[in-house]
Amino acid sequence: MALSCNLNRYLLLMAQEHLEFRLPEIKSLLSLFGGQFSSNQESYGKSPFWILNIPSEDIARNLMKRTVCAKSIFELWGHGESAEELHSSLKSYPLEKMVPFLHPDSTYKIKIHTFNKTLTQEEKVKRIDALEFLPFGGKVTLKDPQHIFCILEDYGLNPNCIPEKPHNIYFGRWIADGQRELIQSYSVKKRHFIGNTSMEAGLSFIMANHGRVKENDVVFDPFVGTGSLLVASAHFGAYVCGTDIDYNTVHGLGKATRKNQKWRGPDENIRANLRQYGLEKYYLDVLVSDASKPSWRKGMYFDAIITDPPYGIRESTRRTGSQKEIPKGLEKCPESHVPVSLSYHLSDMFFDLLNFAAETLVLGGRLVYWLPVYTPEYTEEMVPRHPCLRLISNCEQKLSSHTSRRLITMEKVKTFENRDQYLHLLSDHFLLYQGHNSFREKYFSGVTKRIAKEEKSSQE
């Protein structure tokens, strides 16, 4: 059936990657720009075509200036499950909404976009000619027209079973494209300073969008690494800072990660990464510090905390401490004490991270972080909670057949009080997650079993 006309109805053409991250990104960005996610579409799933109700074209354009999950947005003029239904829908669209874009002095062109099928030039022309009933008064110009219109046809998701006719056909006026080009222009392959776990550009921008990072925000990363998340936040105009326990990484020293390069150069550091993209003015500082023992005085400093904690796979989970247990009541170590690196359990790491976010985020600020899980044992109840933080979204990225990591977005909804520090330790959520302290062992156990299985099958 054709959809009824809605003056604020838009069609989003989504990218077909990071599918689980798309909806939270769009919802976060709409809320950032004063809109609210509204749609009559029953589900989104893997479909690249999303119909949304957006309050204004300005909000739609602002959305596209940020999203890396959407390719384009169109003002939707008509929709149907067949050409006949599409034409009927277009005929019911208010003429006064069309006229500003179809007057005689204007230039325009009509494009065809098909998903999961390729049309011949003859088929494309036939579809365009069928729209002759629309009151186009302007001149067709293929190069740099004032207005671009698009017919979009959806042939489903199965490339092995392509239907003769599309499931849905849309027609709309192109408004703007998304920021997909950022994925290439900020690729870590071209980046000056990288490490073993540098976050890929696409996911870095998705995390910044989930965190609703905006101009003049202060964004913090307690496990900064080579600064990929700082780069993405700075691109959106935020001032960035962070900490990391690894002195060599913070100062760009030691062995290089790049192939055919033995040692890092004198200018390989986090500041240089921001300088590479013209973002150095947004760099505050990065300190060598232990995330389990924050050196910040109490207060609300940060608009967003965006981080990728170590899981113990390619980077170890560490904190400073002493091999001998410090007696209770001894608040200060002797001057001769030299901290050593101790293991840092995942449950302790996330306990510290959530408490730090609850203390230092402004109200409405967001915490965005990755949570590694052993898939066979995972349930949503295992996601750590905090009385000051509300869970916004929880998206999965597969790492292997038996492990994944989940992108958790939380928002500060309550001012931190001292009694809040340990409340969430009593919840079943935290106790359940303690079982994932052995994530590293379970990860490599699965790898070993898979290799053994492959070797056995190759010998048979």
Polypeptide structure, described:
The chain is α/β, with parallel strands linked by helices and 460 residues long. It has two domains: 8-178, VC0802-like (2-Layer Sandwich), CATH 3.30.2130; 182-316 and 340-441, Rossmann fold. The chain contains 13 helices and 16 strands. The strands form three sheets. Strands 2-1-3-7-6-4-5 form a seven-stranded mixed sheet. A seven-stranded mixed sheet has the order 10-9-8-11-14-16-15.
Unreliable stretches (pLDDT < 50, length at least 5) are 1-7, 323-338
Largest sheet: 7 strands, mixed
Going by CATH, the architecture of the largest domain would be: 3-Layer(aba) Sandwich
So, the CATH homologous superfamily of the largest domain?
Vaccinia Virus protein VP39
Sheet/helix structural class? alpha/beta
N to C succession of SSEs: EHEHEHHEHEEEHHEHEHHEEEEHEEEHH
Write down the oligomeric state: single chain
What is the topology, as strand order, of the major beta sheet?
2-1-3-7-6-4-5
Number of strands: 16
Distance between the amino and carboxyl termini:
55 Å
What do the pLDDT scores average to? 85
For the record, the count of structural domains works out to 2
**Total number of helices:** 13
Shape call: elongated
CATH fold group of the largest domain = Rossmann fold
Subcellular location: Cytoplasm
Organism: Cavia porcellus (Guinea pig)
Catalytic activity: guanosine(10) in tRNA + S-adenosyl-L-methionine = N(2)-methylguanosine(10) in tRNA + S-adenosyl-L-homocysteine + H(+)
Main location: cytoplasm
